[in-house]
Amino acid sequence: MTSDAVTATPAGGVPLSGAAPGTGAEEPRTGLGASLQHADAPAKTQGTFPYAADLWAEGLLWAAVLRSPHPHARIVSIDTAPAAAMPGVRAVVTHEDVPGVATHGRRVADRPAFARDVVRHHGEPIAAVAADHPDTARLAAAAIAVEYEVLEPVTDPEKAFEAEPIHPDGNLVRHIPLRFGDEAATGEVIVEGLYRIGRQDPAPIGAEAALAVPRTDGGVEIYTASTDPHTDRDLTAACLGLRPEQVKVVVTGVPGATSDREDLSVQFPLALLALRTGCPVKIAANREESFLGHAHRHPTLLRYRHHADAEGRLVKVEAQILLDAGAYADDSADALAAAVAFAAGPYVVPHAAVDGWAVRTNNPPSGHLRGEGAMQVCAAYEGQMDKLAAKLGMDPVELRMRNVMATGDLLPTGQTVTCPAPVAELLRAVREAPLPPLPKDSPEEEWLLPGGPEGAGDPGAVRRGVGYALGMVHMLGAEGTDEVSTATVKVSGPVATVMCAAVETGQGFSTLARQIVQEVLGVEEVHVVAVDTDQPPAGPGARGRHTWVSGGAVERAAKMVRTQLLQPLAAKFGMSAELLTIADGRITSYDGVLSTTVAEELEGKELWATAQCRPHPTEPLDDTGQGDAFVGLAFAAIRAVVDVDVELGAIRVVEMAVAQDVGRVLNPQQLRARIEAGVTQGVGAALTEHLRVSRGVVRHPDLTAYPLPTALDAPDVRVVKLVEERDVVAPFGAKSVSAVPVVVSPAAVAAAVRAATGRPVNRLPIRPQAAVMAP
After folding, report:
1. How far apart, in Å, are the Cα atoms of 611 and each of 293, 378, 481, 524, 538?
2. Are 341 and 413 in contact (CB under 8 A)?
3. Integer angstrom CA distances of residue 133 from 65, 211, 684
4. Which of 120, 142, 530, 717 has an alpha carbon 20 to 30 Å from 522's alpha carbon atom?
């Protein structure tokens, strides 16, 4: 739900519709700065867009995966005979049938393709079945007789340090001891806090599905909603004992991805079954299988101690951060690096001592989810800032203003913030924005009260709270990750084609690619080729990568084609190609002597170019947590307004006012949608989204027990300011948009609930009892 204010332009603000950002002029029809519609929007709204769950092939078989009912157990025996004997069953595979490497992983190869001797989490794959009907496949999977010796699970990450190792690599995934400044420094005022962040699930709108088709050369093609198809290809090929070129991954429509779908989930068992049977094999997971089969946000325990002087200036931040990685390493080392590096937030801190650990447990695996690491610490350090303000008797906004970071300051990792960091400007914008009106005390507006008309208690028990939060995320990979993407732009007459393996996950890359080519070449009709692994790799779709790296590659390739187009024309008139411009479909010279249309010059021609984009390198954090680990940073400030029924603990988020550092607005409509989606996901993490796990077992893995925010729960999102201070090292100067609202929103909601109730609110999601005031 979005308020009308989102289209307004407050002082220093940026319009999001009807005008080009910052100009007051009419928004362009094409190119960068235009609200170009997604090319696949009509098909998606009409229900004709092909997702993996919709695919079909002649002779199709169906697959099902048998998953462990235990979080920790030794496998005594596996008897597949009852399943294989069932009519319609074509193949049953276990760890004994894995022809290649037995383990895989995106960062650390510690996860077995099928559990061999031990199961380490509830839902771990044991076996897979192919049959001629999906019900037969599921019944056959259930008929596989597995004898387990149940073991005591390690589910408390604090006890994982001393517990028996659940994995040959041990229970410790990574430890980062960050030391910055003087460890002995102290402040006049000290506040401490203990914070807990729950297990958020990506909960994609469409569950995992895929189709594998065997090839005549002994290879296999996999059709699935991958966000990193080349890594999926390489990992699957290794497990199958094939060369990478023998496995082709074709990306189908992605039915929602919030930086997830990077896990190798159903790809390997499906490909193995297709090769074993010689038939196409399809799987379409139900919601329970989806919850058990993919990774979640890291549950986190955080202990903090903030030191400040009497005027509220930070002196030192001490923190201990413990991430529950679950059974396998996955992206936990990366999430920990972000958590430790951003443990003090977007504030200037002269001294810091932060220890971060990621440990294996028998809980469900944790992995990549928007703002991993950064979201957890944001909730904690902003809680600390509110505590510090209360102890000093200061306004929470004023305290933050005295400590905010700016360009040129140092992170606790010792890295200089070289990108634009307009944190103070963002905070001022949300503070000065008008507050929403109070709800009217009338029957027809009872739905405005917490709990709605059927659940609201006494309107006199409702308290309004206003809270503020600041946060930051890093863009692209970190700690030496080689970020590179390749793109090809081809122009044939009046039509341009873009080939880039950057997956469209809903972030709008395919639309951005069209806009870039329109801007550079003046060609209006631009098509983006479907993604598969026959194309050069572009990497995963996370942390704003494709806007920066893949968009940069498309821009470079388009500019090379532009040179091919303009050079002959410039030579004909005895001038340099740099003196010619392309705008509104016309080519003109600086002096106006030459004026022609792009269409005329492209007639009968076919031009193409391939280019790469690789940002400047980063380095791993050293033994004291120091190093230039990040390519760039993005910031946001959010003011949350909530109404709390302090007798029942019901909470309604009334409004989220957002000011964000975006670098440059490339597509106003898409940017607005990304901010709204990020805020809503953050509100879910703050209030409702927590995957319940008891002694390692996922309880009620369905959307009934895992409530997502609906349209009625989503608050009004007021974008009060977008700061377009371009990052000079980023293509177009644009920054990551969708992750930072996810990071900041939960902290802002928690701050608002604290303001309404006076309660500490140190756990996310916020439980009703935490919002109840004592009588």
Report:
1. 37, 38, 20, 21, 12
2. yes
3. 14, 14, 37
4. 530
**CA 750 to CA 682: how far, in whole Å?**
11
pLDDT at 47: 83
CA-nearest of 724, 718, 660, 710 to 681 is: 710
Long-range contacts from 34-37, C-beta under 8 angstroms, 24+ separation: 34/515, 34/667, 35/667, 35/668, 35/669, 35/670, 36/511, 36/514, 36/515, 36/667, 37/511, 37/669
Go through 457-480 and write b for each residue having 16 or more CB atoms within 10 A of its CB, e for each that does not.
beeebbbbbbbbbbbbbbbbbbbe
Is the CB of residue 697 less than 8 Å from the CB of residue 150? no
- Partners of 500 in beta bridges: 487
Peptide bond into 765 cis (omega under 30): yes
Q: Is 557 helix (H, G, I), strand (E, B) or coil?
A: helix
Q: Evaluate whether 54 touches 275 at the Cβ level (below 8 Å).
A: no
For residue 421, the number of C-alpha atoms closer than 13 Å in the C-beta half-sphere is 23
Q: How far is CA 711 from CA 90, 506, 677, in A?
A: 44, 19, 11
Q: Using alpha carbons, select from 737, 773, 774, 588 the residue that is nearest to residue 658.
A: 737
CB 380 within 8 A of CB 317: no
Structure token digits, residue 93: 């595979």
Specify which residues 14 forms β-bridges with.
none
- 295, 264 in Cβ contact below 8 A? no
Residues with Cβ within 8 Å of 443's Cβ and at least 6 positions away in sequence, in order, are none
Res 41: pLDDT: 81
Q: How far apart are CA 417 and CA 742, in angstroms?
A: 22
Q: Which residues pair with 657 in a beta bridge?
A: 639, 718
Three-class SS state of 576? coil
State the Cα–Cα distance between residues 695 and 705, nearest whole angstrom: 17
Contact 762/195 with Cβ under 8 angstroms? Answer: yes
Token couple for 317: 């931040």
Which phi and psi angles does 555 have, rounded to 5°?
Answer: -60, -45
- Strand 247-251 relative to strand 220-224: parallel, antiparallel, unpaired? parallel
Residues 6+ apart with CB under 8 A from 32: 515, 516, 519, 664, 666, 667, 732
d(CA 174, CA 183): 22
Question: Where are the strands (E) in 43-183, listed by range?
Answer: 61-67, 73-79, 89-93, 103-104, 111-112, 118-119, 125-131, 145-150, 172-180
Q: Identify the helix (H) or strand (E) that includes residue 138.
A: helix 134-143
User: H or E stretch including 687?
Assistant: helix 668-687
Which residues of the chain register pLDDT less than 50?
1-24, 443
- By C-alpha distance, which of 301, 413, 395, 398 is closest to 349? 413
pLDDT at 601: 85
pLDDT attached to residue 14:
38
Tell me how far apart the terminal alpha carbons of the chain are, to the nearest angstrom.
34
Nearest to 544, CA basis, from 738, 349, 398, 308? 738
Unique residue bearing structure tokens 């230039």? 628
pTM value is 0.93
A 10 A CB-CB count for 28 gives 18
Alpha helices by DSSP H, 322-445: 332-341, 374-392, 396-401, 423-432
Cα 616 from Cα 85, distance rounded (Å): 58
Tokens of 309: 């002087």
